[in-house]
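Kindly go through the following sequence and its backbone structure tokens. Advise at your convenience whether the structure tokens fit the sequence:

___
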Amino acid sequence: MPNDPGEAIKLQNEVRKLVKIGDYIDIASVRLVGGVDVAYLGKGASQACAVAVVWDRLSGEVLESVYAQDEVIFPYIPGLLSFRELPVVMKACEGLSSNVDVWMVDGAGIAHPRRLGIAAHFGVLLDRPSIGVAKSRLIGSHLPVPRSKGSWVPLRHDGEVVGHVLRTRNDVKPLYISPGHKVSLRQAVELVLACCTKYRLPEPTRMAHNLVERYAHFS
């Protein structure tokens, strides 16, 4: 991973060429869904910790969870989050033994200025299907989202649909869902909704978030 922002942008423009968007998976056969999230430790966020979980869609249970911690090298720059967080995320994923069908990442997929958010970059590195599940909008515009669970509207940027804005609970703030790698726009929405129970976040990223916050608090 480069340490210079200019080099990072150049690398993004190269890696984006490897991103594949389309119906690469059979949603009905998806059982093991991975989730990752990152938190920061120490004054000035000098250390990052990540948790990778494997959630069983059929049983609703977490089968594995791995924690990793690493020094933060890359500065915080909007649009370059993957260079700051992927090193510790990959470190956590290396400890898993399960063969994950689809990954859900806290962040953007192709809903990114250069179409390579952290979920897309992550998916290319692993060459596995991945979906960006963001709690806030990085780019784009959209129409109002109906207030009922399961409602969604397209997220557009520069005339292109780059994701969807999905309501996962009635009257709760929507999520910004975009494909990362080897999934389609529609499949990303359908899979996230299928992994939502009674909470705003889908279970894989919700579990990862809860665990990483717990680790960060007690570290």
